[in-house]
Amino acid sequence: MMKKKSKIKKIPDKKAKRPVVHQKRYFFSRWTKILFRLAAGLVIVYLLVGLSAGPGILKSDLEDKYGKVLGVVNVTVLVRGVPGKPVVSASTGCNGSNPYLDLDWNDDYGADYFDVWRNGAPLATGLTSSYYRDNNVSPGVTYAYYVFVTGPLGTKQSDEIYPAASSSCYVPPPPPPPPPPPTPTTTISIESIDKITNLSHFYCTPQTKSKKPFFTGITDILQGKISLEIVYPKAKRHILSNTTANINGYWSWRAMSKLKKGTYYLYVSATDPSDSSRRATDSLVFKVSSNMKAKTIRRCQLSQLGNYSIKALAHEVEPANLILSIVDENKAIHPGENLKYSFVSENGSGDYRLQILDDKKEPIFTTVVSASSDGGEIEISRMIPPGNYGLAISEEKEGVDVSSISEFQVKERPVLVLAPGREITMRQILDHVGWAAFAALAALAIFGILLGIEFRLARRSKLQVAEDDLKEMGMID
Amino acid sequence: MFNITKEKIEIASEIVVIVLSLVSIIFASGIVWRVEKKLDLSFKFLLASIIFFSAGELAGFFYIPPSSLLVYFVPAAKIFFAVFLLAGMATMRGMIRRIDGEK
To answer: How far, in Å, CA of A143 to CA of A147, rounded?
Structure first.
């Protein structure tokens, strides 16, 4: 059985005595506890915040707060007295070619300023530093110096010293200018005349049957201006011409007018168009009569006939006063297009002969232009095959044949232009037709086979897609 | 070993697009041959749009001189591609709506 709790409440006895408590002590202990807890809480919060920010920060903060109280203060007291007698020392030196004298003396706490005297007269007064440089001195001259020290409690004078300014301030002469770079030697050589080649090692007078001999040569002035002069002393006849070397320095030229039988002197010079100081010359003595036999040519090349010079005497090449230039910068043109040209002539009268020359400098087209015009256009025939050509302008006057030749290139018309400058010509297609045709045919065959397979598969299909079929396949509801 | 340049990547991506679009022509042709009526019509439109897309890509692969009339072909092909794609989609949508019984 469970015991029932008693419902009788205990009634407190109001008359019972309360415990004896010291009221004042109780009051202080309560506030002390509150303050102590508050301070402890603050310290804990401070430490937590400090530690979370970093022990280093906490340390510096503590040092900042309490270090000032715990630190030591050093106090230095200086007592100014009567200035002492300064001891002056001197040294000499050079500032470039000019000598100077440095004066130095001891510092003095009792001094307000210093005065420097030279040869009995003040040199500098009111100095606050214990140093002075005298730049106004002559080499090798001795001067008398003394220093006054002035302070609040009096003035003192140093002993007189007699330093001498340096007399050996040496100024090295300016370095000599670097020697000018050596001028590169330029060369030009005549390499062949018609069938005779390697003229640099040819020890006979070369001989040709051609009335218009064809010359080739080489120079190290790339794309240089080539001036040519053929002199025939007997007839007092001159041929003057100019052309240009190609990008590799090779040049070729053919006489524009027929030469009679005889011995001729050919003078050639190459000039750099951008630097006229770069110039080279060469010469050749040759004959126009009958062709040399192959055996004779071999003997001449093997020096079996002695070291015979085929060079003409030194002669300044007379410049041709007729200069032809092609306007197009690329000097490349397609067949059927017009080639723009211009020419400059000092004579400026009569008519000029304008010719298109092939790579052997043989004329393939000739026309006449008026000297009054300074240029024009000439149509390049569609029949002209691609290659290197020359445009020549010439005139014959009073025994002087003047001509000027400018090179240009005839390019094949492109079949396909992939990008500006990236052209595909028929010749290139024919050169690469093997793999190109194979690639095109392979691509076409693959496409056709795949299309055929697809068509065959389609033929096997039902050809009709009904709604019931779609429902059976579950594609529609 | 391989010098990969931006130009080469562009050319390679153009070739890939052209080849894949040609394969798409084959697949679309197969669908056209297999189905009839509305579905056939919609895939014919889609096939036409793929053909125009392929032709435009093929023409854009090569350099066309600015003076040539062919410069107008590439934008025209793009327009036709979009028009036929829309027509194909619209036909397909109409057909599906009819199957669904929408009014």
So the answer is: 13
pLDDT tens digits along A1-56: 444 444 555 555 555 555 555 555 555 677 778 888 888 888 888 888 777 776 67
Question: Rg of the Cα trace of chain A?
Answer: 56
Task: Measure CA A285 to chain center.
Answer: 47
Name the A residues in 442-461 with CB < 8 Å from any B CB: 447, 450-451, 454-455, 457-459, 461
> Which bin fits A317, alpha (ψ -120 to 50), beta or left (φ > 0)?
beta
| Chain segment A122-176, per-residue pLDDT in tens | 888 888 888 899 988 888 889 999 998 888 878 888 888 999 888 888 777 788 8
This prediction's pTM: 0.47
- For the stretch A456-461, contacts whose Cβ atoms lie closer than 8 Å and that sit 24 or more positions apart, written own/partner, are A457/B30, A458/B30, A458/B33, A458/B34, A459/B33, A461/B33, A461/B34
Preferred mutation among B11, B32, B35 to probe A, highest tally of A CBs within 10 A: B35
Partners of A194 in the β-ladder? none
Check if the beta carbon of residue B45 is closer than 8 Å to that of residue B83.
no
**pLDDT tens digits along A203-231:** 888 889 998 999 999 999 888 999 998 88
A399: left (phi over 0), alpha (psi -120 to 50) or beta: left
Q: How many CB atoms lie within 10 A of CB A389?
A: 24
Closest CB from A419, A420, A461 relative to B34: A461
| B5: exposed, middle or buried (Cβ count in 10 Å: 0-12, 13-18, 19+) | exposed
| Rounded distance between C-alpha atoms, residue A201 and residue A196, angstroms | 11
Cβ distance of A450 and B23 shorter than 8 Å: yes
The enclosing H or E element of B49 equals helix B37-61
Residue A105: exposure state from Cβ atoms within 10 A (0-12, 13-18, ≥19)? buried
Length of chain A: 477
Q: Does B61 touch chain A (CB under 8 A)?
A: no
